[in-house]
């Protein structure tokens, strides 16, 4: 059935009164709407016999006539098909080559980025290690200075003590 019959089905669901034109004709078939049932719509489809068809409609029983093809035409068709096949194969090969080139570029870029990241991480680590080493050396130098000052102070205290003992005793 065609769109009009589907439309009439949908419309008949909304409108309970049957449409005055209850017979629809589509080419070689006729659709009649029957009385509405409790379960929904019902239709009767009547196919026309081939003798009822009008003379202006094409005959379905006769297949379309094939024209005789010559050997040259067949050869041309084969050559054209071969050319299309070669063209399609060349296009597929070209696409594959482009895809491989793209993959190589992506891989090269990924390796380059990885190398850059590794180099930057190594430089950052070396900088932090140098900084840590400098801080440690400064801290050790400060400790040595304090220790030297304590030793000097202790030596001065001992000298002062010895001088007191010599004076008192």
UniProtKB/TrEMBL annotation:
InterPro entries: Stathmin_CS, Stathmin_fam, Stathmin_sf. GO terms for cellular component: cytosol; Golgi apparatus; neuron projection. GO terms for molecular function: protein domain specific binding; tubulin binding. Residues 45-71 are annotated as: Disordered. Gene3D superfamilies: 6.10.280.30. Residues 71-113 form a coiled coil. Keywords: Coiled coil. Signal peptide: none annotated. The keyword Manganese does not apply. Pfam families: Stathmin. GO terms for biological process: blastocyst hatching; cytoplasmic microtubule organization; microtubule depolymerization; negative regulation of neuron projection development; negative regulation of Rac protein signal transduction; neuron projection development; regulation of microtubule polymerization or depolymerization. Residues 49-63 have a biased composition (Low complexity). PANTHER family: STATHMIN, STATHMIN-3. Exhibits microtubule-destabilizing activity, which is antagonized by STAT3. Interacts with STAT3. Interacts with CLU (secreted form); this interaction may act as an important modulator during neuronal differentiation. Belongs to the stathmin family. This is Stathmin. It comes from Chlorocebus sabaeus.
């Amino acid at each position: 059935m065609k769109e009009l019959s589907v439309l009439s089905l949908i419309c008949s669901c909304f409108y309970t009164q049957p449409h005055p034109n209850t017979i629809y004709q589509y080419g070689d078939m006729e659709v009649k709407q029957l009385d509405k049932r409790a379960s929904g719509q019902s239709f009767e489809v009547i196919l026309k016999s081939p003798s009822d068809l009008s003379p202006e409609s094409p005959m379905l029983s006769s297949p379309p006539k094939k024209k005789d093809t010559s050997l040259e035409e067949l050869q041309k068709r084969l050559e054209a098909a071969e050319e299309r096949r070669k063209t399609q194969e060349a296009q597929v090969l070209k696409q594959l080559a482009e895809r491989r080139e793209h993959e190589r570029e992506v891989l090269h870029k990924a390796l380059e980025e990885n190398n850059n990241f590794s180099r930057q991480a190594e430089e950052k680590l070396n900088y932090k290690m140098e900084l840590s080493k400098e801080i440690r050396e400064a801290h050790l130098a400060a400790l040595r200075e304090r220790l030297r000052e304590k030793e000097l102070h202790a030596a001065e205290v001992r000298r002062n003590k010895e001088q007191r003992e010599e004076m008192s005793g």
